[in-house]
Amino acid sequence: MATSVETAAEHERILREIESTDTNCIGPTLRSVYDGREHGLFVEKLDVRIRNHDREIEKMCNHHFQGFVDSITELLKVRGEAQKLKSQVTETNRHLQDEGKELMGSMEELQKCRVQQRNIASTIDKLSHCLPVLEMYSRLQEQMRAKRYYPALRTLEKLELTCLPRAGQYRFCSIMAENIPKLRTQIRDTAMTQLRDFLESIRKHSDKIGETAIKQAKLQRSLDSSVSSQPRGLFGRRNRKEAAVTDIDGHGGSPVSEQDSGILDVDDEEEEEEDDVPGAQDLVDFSPVYRCLHIYTVLGLRDVFENYYRKQRRKQARLVLQPHSNMHETLEGYTRYFNQIAGFFVVEDHILHTTQGLVNRAYVEELWELALSKLIAALRTHSSYCDNPNLVLDLKNLIVLFADTLQGYGFPVSQLFDMLLEMREQYGEILLKKWNITFRQVLDQDNFSPIPVSTEQEYKHYTSQFPLQDPDLDKLPFPKKLPFSEFVPKVYCQLKEFIYACLKYSEDLHLSSTEVDDMIRKSTNLLLTRTLSHCLQYAIKKKNVGLAELVQVIINTTHLEQSCHFLEEFISNITNVPPDSANATKLYGTSTFKDARHAAEAEIYTNLNAKIDQFLQLAEYDWMVAAPGGGTPEASDYLMDLIAFLNSTFSVFTHLPGKVAQTACMSACKHISTSLMQLLLDPEVRQISMGALHQLNADVKECEGFARAGPVAGFQGDTLLLAFSDLRQLLELFTQWDWSSYLADYGKPSCKYLRVNPHTALALLEKMRETSRKNNVFAQFRKTDRDRQKLIDTIIKQLRNLIAQQQA
């Protein structure tokens, strides 16, 4: 019973679910019915439920049936009216269609016009984007043809970044986009080619640029030598050029100049006024550098360009700094070398100040240090080959001008001036060599005789060349003679010329007056003590120099010695340094001329003695001649000639200082006495007779007569006779045979034969003994001869004992 109730409840639930559920979802419900076992019962319940619903539908229809009939009746009425309305609408539509055909035609035309208008607007819009592209591409082509590459690159950049994206996807746009990298490469390569041409051009013409810069510096210095050329003379008009250079990091236009690179035409430069020297911007078109810098900056390759430019300029610097092998031969070689270096750094300085970072100060200073080291090394090497002082002086002036030029651009040049001071020593050596030749020529051309002066004009001419101060000579009437020869004024003038030459080198070296004065004095001292001294020694020592020439040399050096203080004053006047300054170097001219005079005096003594020797070589004594029977023998002919020569010679010595003439005379007399003594004691003369001694005694008396006559003034009493005293006492001892006095008084101050040496007497006595033995070999039985021989032997023995006592 409970089961049937549950089944009925389940069926009731299913029926409600069927009634309330969408027919699409009824399948599972029915499935559950069929899965159960009571589906028959469910069908019965379903039929009952259907019947209930049918009864309810029927009730509802019966309730609404009359209203439905009324509605149908009204609907039939409405259908008639609808047929009428339809006919009217159809007629109206027909009339409307007939009337709207014209409007439809207009509308269709309007539609077509609107489509055309829309298409035109679209086309205009597209063309508004495409035309700028085409115009810009056309402008790009024109710029490329005109070689205006930087504007072309800017146009290319705008075309790529702005115009092409707006234009859209068109075939011509694709072609343009494909050509853009090629055009960039072409612009870059072309700019680099122009840069290479520019670098090659300035390498070839750097000497012209440097010449212009140096000329500008020279002009500036000539305008005001006291003002250093601080302004950048060569680029005095640089502002105009800088105004033309755009900011490479900005978006300005291209550089003003878009012409080909290279050196501009300056053929008419020589015709310009001297005060209008062209600047570098007038000689060089720098636009290839600016253009290439801008182009590489826009391309993002600035570092590549900077590295390439600096590398190439370093290579060019090494080429410029390499001197020619024959540069030292002419000034033109040095000038071209300095012009090239100056031109190189003028260009670099211009690049430094007209570009932003292409080169920096550190890079330029590095190049300058390299240039200084190589330049100084080259100058030291090549200047060492130079032996022309004028060339060295011109080179010095060129270096100073070069240094002033580069200093005007801010480059340190102290090393160049230090090198010039080093070259000063070399210049001094070259001057010394030149003046050595000059002095020797003056000496060779001099006639070593006093200068004859006939007129007042001639006298003033010589006194203007040499500071002669002789009041006695001034009072003498014309014609008269100056005491010195042509050598003196010529040497004095040459000394002044040398001082001027030294002063010329010291100019423009930025030295103080004291330093210049010191340099000149040291160089002059070298000239005096080394060059002039050697030349004087050469003139004195050379062959065939006569006594008269030597006498004149002494007179000349005496006057030159007296003129040394005038040279001191001359140097002080040109250097404005007082001669009594604490640091002033004194001239050694006095000692130089004194040494030369002493050498000439010694040479006079030597030559005089040599002349005397020549006369003595003519002496032909017969050492075995017998003693004269009566009277005094005459002096030898050679000795008479010698005395005559000495008298004529000493007459020339009147202009010499008294002591020199006296010394020469005393030296000559001593030399004669010594030479005659040597003739007596000559080992080759083994035998001497008394007759030979008498002849020699007559010659000595002649010499004593010469000395007593006083050939040279200034001797007191018989001072000159003392030169012959040794020989006189020796001859008197033998001719008077006063051996007893000699042996008895020997060693006493009152001895009559104090100057007779026992050795000399012994040697001469032995020669007489040999003569006596030979003459008396057959007369040995004569008592007188035997006694004389014994006496000689006894005297010889006593002399030997005397000598032995002295030695003991």
Automatic annotation (TrEMBL):
Keywords, in A-Z order: Exocytosis, Transport
Compositional bias of kind Acidic residues: 265-277
Residue ranges occupied by any Exocyst complex subunit EXOC6/Sec15 C-terminal domain in the UniProt entry: 415-767
GO biological process, any: vesicle tethering involved in exocytosis
Residue ranges, compositional bias (Polar residues): 222-231
Lipoprotein listed as a keyword: no
Residues of the Exocyst complex component EXOC6/Sec15 N-terminal domain: 45-214
Ranges for region Disordered: 220-239, 244-279
A cellular component term, taken from the record's GO annotations: exocyst
Family statement drawn from the similarity comment of this UniProt entry: Belongs to the SEC15 family.
Function: Component of the exocyst complex involved in the docking of exocytic vesicles with fusion sites on the plasma membrane.
Protein name in UniProt: Exocyst complex component
